């Protein structure tokens, strides 16, 4: 009865792979909120009924009071599940910001589709906070995610990429199946984008670089 | 973690910064690996080895002349060099489940030394010193930079994870640096705003608080 929808919402979130987003389930979300409203109306009506009968709300434990308690607890549970859903998605958003890039447009379009406008706002605000911290400390924290092993890496471009990408001092054309010998610091953002990309499977890929 | 340790064991390099008197690091012991990787010829490895041994002798002489120390003291001195301290702080921060006190002075010193080494490397490149040597210095610089960045990053991730708790507890807040406190407050505001807009404003009145279940 009460709670089926929030249970489905939480299950929906948990059924996705860990660390990956599913599209925001607005239908279930809105239904859960409606249920909260219903619960609240029922609580208010029950309390009014108790007050009309002249009984003190807190001390008398009659049927109405128990009913109001059940609605109250159900509402609290709903709130908790909704907040957990939003909170976990926000965790994944923050993780994306660190792994892929701080600009919203750096995210592949498949991921952008799965975020709501509110989540995109949150993503933007959070990356602004990170950028301002990095500016104050004077060190870029977004690079060097893995311990550096070699100064130069050999990479092969497996897919098609826009032409004419500027990398440090020369322009490189990442045509399909071309091998390049780049500095590690230059190649890293592209590799990061790809590893996050392949984690969210999609039928079309237009940017694939694999480090050899 | 283990991989990183062995990489470090193989590849610390001596630096002789002209300006800062305090930084000494361990002398490398596995230069052959580098020689193999960069495929030097036998004569080149010999000259390199001779250079390195001579440099080692010079340095121990310099160390001995600076202060009368035996080799045991040299060990203890190099173990408290800034890189070692940074390594220790980084390891502690990575392993600890909650945020540890901020090593402000260490971070400042590390930043200063990194800039110093960058300038040195530019000078070397201009003077046309052997590119192998330059690339070794560059790699060492990269590794130190990674340590510093990773240290700050781990702290930021912990703040993001526990932001409400840190802002509530005085003791935890005292372990942050000034900029981290600003960051924590902004993070918490952003997240609270996100919660309010997505969930809380749609709920009935008494249930709209971020931190309490209901009033």
From TrEMBL, chain A:
InterPro entries, alphabetized: GINS_A (IPR021151), GINS_bundle-like_dom_sf (IPR036224), GINS_Psf1 (IPR005339), PSF1_C (IPR056783)
A GO term from the CC aspect: GINS complex
Keywords per UniProt: DNA replication, Nucleus
Keyword flag Repeat: no
Domain DNA replication complex GINS protein PSF1 C-terminal: start-end pairs: 149-195
A biological-process GO annotation: DNA strand elongation involved in mitotic DNA replication
Domain GINS subunit: from-to ranges: 62-137
Official protein name in the record: GINS subunit domain-containing protein
Pfam families per UniProt: PSF1_C (PF24997), Sld5 (PF05916)
Keyword Nucleus listed: yes
Subcellular location: Nucleus
Cross-referenced CDD domains: GINS_A_psf1
Major location (coarse): nucleus
PANTHER family tied to this protein: DNA REPLICATION COMPLEX GINS PROTEIN PSF1, PARTNER OF SLD5
Family per record: Belongs to the GINS1/PSF1 family.
UniProtKB/TrEMBL annotation, chain B:
SUPFAM superfamilies: GINS helical bundle-like
Source organism of this protein record: Brassica carinata
Gene Ontology process terms (BP): DNA-templated DNA replication; double-strand break repair via break-induced replication
Compartments it resides in: Nucleus
Domain GINS subunit: residue ranges: 132-197
InterPro entries xrefs: GINS_A, GINS_bundle-like_dom_sf, GINS_Sld5, Sld5_GINS_A
One GO term describing the cellular component: GINS complex
Keywords: DNA replication, Nucleus
Protein name, entry field: GINS subunit domain-containing protein
A Pfam family reported for this protein in Swiss-Prot or TrEMBL: Sld5
Signal peptide location: none
């Amino acid at each position: 009865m009460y709670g089926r929808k929030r249970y489905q919402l939480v299950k929906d979130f948990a059924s996705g792979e860990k660390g990956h987003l599913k599209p925001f389930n607005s239908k279930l979300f809105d239904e859960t909120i409606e249920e909260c409203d219903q619960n609240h109306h029922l609580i208010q009506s029950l309390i009014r009924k108790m007050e009309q009968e002249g009984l003190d709300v807190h001390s008398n434990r009659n049927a109405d009071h128990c009913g109001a308690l059940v609605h109250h607890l159900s509402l609290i549970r709903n709130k908790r599940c909704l907040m957990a859903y939003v909170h976990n998605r926000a965790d994944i958003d923050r993780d994306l910001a660190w792994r892929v890039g701080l600009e919203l447009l750096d995210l592949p379009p498949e991921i952008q589709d799965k975020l709501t406008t509110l989540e995109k706002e949150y993503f933007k605000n959070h990356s602004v906070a990170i950028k301002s911290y990095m500016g104050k400390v004077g060190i870029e924290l977004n690079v060097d995610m893995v311990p550096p092993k070699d100064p130069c890496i050999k990479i092969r471009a497996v897919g098609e990429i826009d032409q004419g990408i500027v990398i440090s001092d020369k322009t490189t054309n990442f045509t399909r199946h071309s091998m390049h010998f780049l500095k590690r610091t230059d190649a890293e953002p592209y590799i990061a984008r790809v590893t996050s990309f392949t984690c969210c499977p999609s039928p079309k890929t237009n940017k694939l670089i694999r480090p050899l | 973690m283990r991989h990183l340790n062995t990489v470090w064991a193989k590849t610390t390099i001596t630096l002789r910064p002209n300006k800062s008197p305090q930084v000494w690091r361990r002398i490398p012991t596995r230069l052959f690996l580098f020689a193999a990787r960069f495929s030097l010829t036998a004569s080149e490895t010999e000259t390199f080895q001779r250079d390195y041994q001579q440099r080692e002798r010079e340095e121990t002489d310099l160390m001995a002349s600076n202060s009368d120390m035996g080799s045991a003291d040299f060990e203890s001195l190099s173990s408290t060099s800034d890189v070692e301290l940074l390594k220790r702080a980084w390891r502690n921060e990575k392993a600890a489940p909650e945020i540890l006190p901020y090593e402000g002075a260490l971070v400042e010193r590390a930043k200063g030394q990194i800039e110093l080494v960058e300038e040195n490397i530019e000078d070397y490149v201009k003077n046309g010193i052997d590119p192998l040597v330059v690339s070794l210095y560059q790699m060492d610089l990269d590794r130190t930079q990674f340590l510093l960045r990773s240290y700050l990053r781990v702290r930021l991730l912990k703040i993001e994870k526990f932001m409400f708790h840190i802002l509530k507890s005085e003791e935890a807040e005292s372990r942050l640096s000034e900029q981290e406190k600003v960051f924590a407050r902004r993070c918490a505001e952003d997240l609270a705003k996100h919660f309010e807009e997505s969930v809380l404003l749609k709920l009935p009145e008494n249930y709209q608080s971020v931190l309490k279940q209901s009033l």
